[in-house]
Amino acid sequence: MLVEQIRELALERRRFGYRRVHRLLRREGTEVNHKKVYRLYRQAELAVRKRKRLRDIMLERHLLTLPDRPNQSWSMDFVMDSLLLKAGWIKCWRQVNW
Questions:
Q1: How far apart are CA 75 and CA 50, in angstroms?
Q2: Distance between CA 91 and CA 79 in Å, rounded?
Q3: Are 73 and 65 in contact (CB under 8 A)?
Q4: Tens digits of per-residue pLDDT, 41-85?
Q5: Could you tell me the pLDDT band of residue 38, with boundaries at 50, 70 and 90?
Q6: For FRET with 72, which of 30, 53, 60, 65 sits at 20 to 30 Å CA-CA?
Q7: How far apart are CA 5 and CA 17, in angstroms?
Q8: Distance (Å, rounded) from C-alpha 37 to C-alpha 72?
């Protein structure tokens, strides 16, 4: 009876592990120990399937070209620092011309 409840909940919600199944059983009013739910969950050979990792698409890398004259390449950056000011943080915007 308890194994059937666990199997039913696990098959109904495939992404739920034994901990969430235990919580659902407690909400339904079944007083059961989490260690017993774990044992029965493993005996029923239930397990959350691991998701396959999507691999990054390999693109051809290109070398960055160096600028050969002014105003050809710009860089910017935000810098934050906490100084001993009453205001707290000081924020700077850096812009560099290569």
A1: 41
A2: 6
A3: no
A4: 999 888 887 777 777 677 788 888 888 888 888 888 888 777 666
A5: very high
A6: 60
A7: 14
A8: 65
